[in-house]
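Example with several molecule types.
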Amino acid sequence: MKVLIVDDSALSRMMIKSLILEKQPECETIEAASGDEALGIDIKEQPDLITIDINMPGMNSFDAAVQLHEKWPSAKMAVITANIQNSVRQKIQSLGIMFLAVVEKPVTAERMNKIFNAL
Amino acid sequence: MSISLTEFEKDALTEIFNIGMGRAAHSLSQMANDEITLAVPSLAVVTYEEAVSILTKTAGDRVCSVTQRLLGEFNADAILIFPENNSLSIVRLMVGDAYPGDLTEMEEEALTEIGNIILNACFGTLINIIGGDFDISLPSARTGACEHILEIEGNKSGEIVMLLYIDFILKNRTIYGHVAILLEGDSMPNFILKIQEFLATL
Amino acid sequence: MDMAELIGPAELKVSLATNILKVLPVGLMVVDDQQTILVWNQWMENASGIREVHAVGKQFTSLFPDIQYGRLHTALLNALENGCPSVLSNALNNGPLPLFYGVKNLMEQSIHIVPFKNHAGERCALIQVMDVSSARKREDTIRKQARVLDEIQQQQNALLHSIPDIAWLKDVEGRYLAVNDKFSTVYGIDPAEISGKKNSDIYPEVMAEQHEITDRMVLDTAAEKRYDESIVTSDGKTMWVETVKVPIMKGDQIIGIAGVSRDITERKASEERIHFLAHYDVLTELPNRFMLFEKLGKLLAVARLEETQVAVFFVDLDRFKFINDTLGHTAGDTLLQMVAERLKECSREVDIIARVGGDEFVIALSGIRDIKDTTAIARKILAVVGRPYNIHGETVHVTPSLGISFYPKDGLDTAALIKNADRAMYQAKKAGRNGYEFFREGMDAITLDQFSLENSLRGALEREELELLYQSKVDLKTGDIVGAEAQLRWNHPKLGLIMPDRFIGILEESGLIGPIGEWVIATACAQNRKWQDQGLPQISVAVNLSAIQLKQKHFVERLARVIDEAGLEACLLDLEITESVIMHNAESTITLLQDLKDLGVKLSVDDFGTGYSSLSYLKRFPIDSLKIDQSFVRDLNSNTNDAAITSTIIAIAKQLNLTVIAEGVETIDQLRFLHSNECDQIQGFYFSKPLSADDFAEHLKNGISRKSFQAAVH
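Resulting structure tokens for the full complex:
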């Protein structure tokens, strides 16, 4: 399984990657530090799963999520974020994308399971 | 003896504190019944003198602060600092009162709680992520001149301070403040060690 | 033996701990990492109503089910799991635990949660609860008061800003508390920045000092201060204001000052104008007679001290009346202004020039050392004033006559100096005009020395020096003589015939107007009766009344008696009162006139057109006729204004059903004009000059020749 990890923090990318590989060592991971960077990735890469932090500076993360979904409609998406207030949850739901899960930072194995179980 | 962090280490710390802020914001927004965003736009590692100078310049003459102490594998004081009128704004926006005078006792207590939530989140997340056994003290609030706020027992001269710049966004108003984490003299190497140990596990 | 030995250290500690828990004035609970309650103190018992025995060992959440998922619970878990202590402030947390004081009052709580490790290293949490109910109450009151204060502040600001005048408030230290918009506009200061500023911060030095003084006065006396002052605005304009400062009292204590300043620039301008008019001649802008006395008085005082002399020049323009009549009044006015300027050329700043009469001026020069110097000045005045004038394109010449007196030689006070300079001036006129004369004792008082004349006048009646002459009034329709005006003449043994305008003033001032006035009326009435007895046509006789006579007590009764004694019918007596006298105090005059009318006499308004008539009063006066002043008649044919005025007066008189008589008719053209304008009667040299009683009898008998009358009017 190919996973695209979109997060502006190197640490978080590392942590997520570490947890994914822990759970499923055969996974391939690609990283992007911003929505723009993620959209810039060659379409042929075709990830199976995209995790996205919706609290990134620069391009509006919600727009990024939508555009990423349009780019790779078959990929499954999960939100990993530090900001999990209700208002944010509602916003996420309003995007009309079937997210696998909304996971709270800091990511733990337990929290990542939410994603894996949903796959 | 100045030990500096690498870019990656700084980025890691910023992220850790951001995560902490996210959780604090969650708690606070439930209390305020309104959306609150807390973010850490930047982190700098400076000396004590530099910290005093920066804070006096940006926070002004009168500041409100909430302080908590971390004791364990390394010792640190975390001080949340807001310029006085910003503190008034935060408290009054959250309590929902436009009282025109100086900070009252009840309001200072509320500020203590707000600071406590934020600092707990910072410390808590840090400890969660890098691990370790620590004792955390109760928060105490102070109002006064910047230099006095930063004076804690022991000679702080030359010691390392992590200075976090914070955005506190409530009711479409952005309020700027700082968290100063003063690492006690020999705590710095231990601290760096703990960070590096953790990063290595990734 | 001490406690420790008796009880043992461990038990001592436990006993101490138990006592502490009992007496601790705050709520204390301890839970373990399973949230089981380990400690529950007395305070908690009292506040929750839950006995220790029922609390210890129970789950915290079972004791307080409502706290589940709430802030308190989360904080407790955070303490137990992560070792984070928490503060739950009263302001942000509403009664987390169901604790009460009194009967059913929910307690305002302030809660601290502190994690610690027990002897086994297990996490526990201490929960402390404080009752802050009264503190909360106090704070709420303070907040309320602050809001009220804020409101009052708003109201005060609204009030302050609603005042259209400059308004401000200061504290007892003289620091500004608030100012209104008008203040900030005038002084260019932002109201938001005024707080705490003092007078010296806002006003220029002198003004600030003034304010300090008046502020001090108000504070010291606790009394209002009201005064006018001149202020300078932020854009440099000068403004007059009336300022009121009042102390703000709280019981007996002064807590501040309030002030309002009203713009009185207009009023001030009016006041200044009035002052100007009272002291200065409007036409020439020179000081007037009143001001002259003031100024000259001061000049003399200085001269007295410095032992110098002051020269007083009395300047009278020769034949000015003639020039005025020839060129018209506008030109005459312009001429006077120009003369005033010429006179200024002849004097210094420190000297005084005043206009004291129609064509009369007084110049006072100080610091005269040698009388001979004044000769040069006199010559200069003659030369300068005598230079031709260009008025509206016409070249005009006018010359002055100068009379000069000196302080202290010719008088010690202003009146004396002016009088003597005046006498000297008359000498100059007598000597041929366009010259100057220095005053000498013994100079002829052609101006009729008041004192000596009055003396003469006193005996005039007894010495039969007074006589009445009569001038006929002719009806313009019929040509009949219908009346006679009695005119007083004084045959002075030394001075010859003196006309009434020369001594009427003395009559009035001396009080002789009473007896002499009465004599005139009595004589005229008796004379008219005599004419009737002689079989002459019946006419009315007219007598001029002065203001003084009218003011006499019982004038009406006296008049009635006089008419009665003369045996004349009242309707054959005509009382002529000048327009200005009648209009003066018009209201009270109406009553008097009515009383006179009730006697049956006729009333005429004399010299009509020369005073300031109010037509509304004219309507109300019970008068019978108007006499048009001769000044209008004289210029009827040369001055269209006068012609228009005359015909207008005739028209008005006719509208008011009054008889109108024109005085001073001398030419046939005047006669014709008046006739065509339907004037009722005329009086003047054309038909007859004033005649003696006997001559008038002849004149009345003959009447106006029919033929010449017809010829004249057609």
